[in-house]
Amino acid sequence: MATMIEENGPSTHEQSEVSSSSQARQKLEGLLNKNMRIRMTDGRTLVGLFLCTDRDCNVILGSAQEFLKSTDTFSQGEPRVLGLAMIPGHHVVSIEVEADSLEDTQGFGANH
């Protein structure tokens, strides 16, 4: 019948979960408006600006272009302009961030 009340806030386990989720959120926020390439399960590749994502890993790209074949660089191939595109998370195979976009981002894998 005794109830334990924590007067000093959440336990250390809960604090570590909050800390790791806030670090992940900061990394994602650092990628906003960066140019990304997303490869999909059907072989298509979409390139565009990362605008948002959700808990189901759906991704919204702005100024998106579709490439029918996988390419080694962002500029190869004949693109089809899509504009704003939503990619369902279960169709995402890989996500790459353009190197030029990362150079502008501090603290996310950029070596200065």
How does this structure look, described?
The protein is α+β, with helices and mostly antiparallel strands and 112 residues long. The chain has a domain at 31-97: Roll (SH3 type barrels). Helices cover 22% and strands 34% of the residues. The protein contains 2 helices and 5 strands; from the N terminus they run αβββββα. It has helices spanning 12-31, 99-103; strands at residues 35-40, 45-53, 59-67, 80-87, 92-97. A 5-stranded antiparallel β-sheet has the order 4-3-2-1-5. Strand 2 and strand 3 form a beta hairpin. The longest helix is centred in the N-terminal third of the chain and has 20 residues, at 12-31. The protein is globular, with a radius of gyration of 19 Å. Residues 1-9 and 107-112 have low confidence and may be disordered.
Question: TL;DR?
Answer:
Pfam families: LSM (PF01423). With 112 residues, the chain is an alpha+beta fold. Helices cover 22% and strands 34% of the residues.
Q: Alpha-carbon distance between the termini? A: 58 Å
Strand content: 25-35%
**H/E element sequence:** HEEEEEH
Q: What's the alpha carbon Rg, rounded to whole Å?
A: 19 Å
The tally of beta strands, per DSSP, is 5
Coarse morphology: globular
Helix run count = 2
CATH class of the domain at 31-97: Mainly Beta
* Main pleated sheet: 5 strands, antiparallel
SS content category: alpha+beta
Strand order of the largest sheet: 4-3-2-1-5
CATH topology heading of the domain at 31-97: SH3 type barrels
Which ranges are low-confidence, i.e. pLDDT below 50, for 5 or more consecutive residues?
1-9, 107-112
CATH architecture of the domain at 31-97, by name, is: Roll
pLDDT averaged over residues:
79
Percent of residues in helices comes to 10-25%
Pfam families: LSM
Domain Sm: 23-101
Region (Disordered): 1-25
Family: Belongs to the snRNP Sm proteins family.
